[in-house]
Design goal:
Number of helices: 9
Structural class: mainly alpha
Strand content: under 5%
Number of domains: 1
Order of helices and strands: HHHHHHHHH
Length: 199
Amino acid sequence: MPPSRRGRGVTVGRAGNWAAAVLALGLALTGCGGSADVAPKPPAAPPGSDPVAWAGAFCGGLGEVIGGVSAMVKAQPSPQGQKDGLLEFSDIAQRAFASTAQKLQQLGPPRITDGKQVQDTAVGFFSNASQTVGIQRTKLAGLDANDPDFVNKASHLAGPDLGAASTQMHQLTSNKELAPAFRTAPQCQQLSSATAGPR
């Protein structure tokens, strides 16, 4: 297989690794849509932001990151083209994660029981993911695309480690008080469609 084809295969595989971590979170949202049981309303709604607006900001951020995968898919098959595609995706992902953390902070905790804890978990996830992507982007930018070992070095750069966060996010999106908001917010409906893919 020619080097350019090999590079494309490995780097598109990297795209899958980056996207898979985020897609796992998106799929958690798809799963939460199935629990049709409506949670009993709390006696008094605690102060906070509208849960639908909050869920919309949350899903919108993940949707932007997933949308950024197209930058890698469209990248030229040369090592430099693949590097440029990964850098572009990193920029999109980092901006989306940071912007979502900021939007959630501006909205404030969702108006549900334990809204502060939910808020801290979500903001922490998006902030940490933004920082991690930024660190990996710096490492990727330092690699020489003309290095014969570029593809191997690029493939060893760790994507954002979202494993532990994925569990937290699943618990968050399965929250009975937030589930209706995740089903209702247009951004979450779009995210569910994007992660479901063609049938």
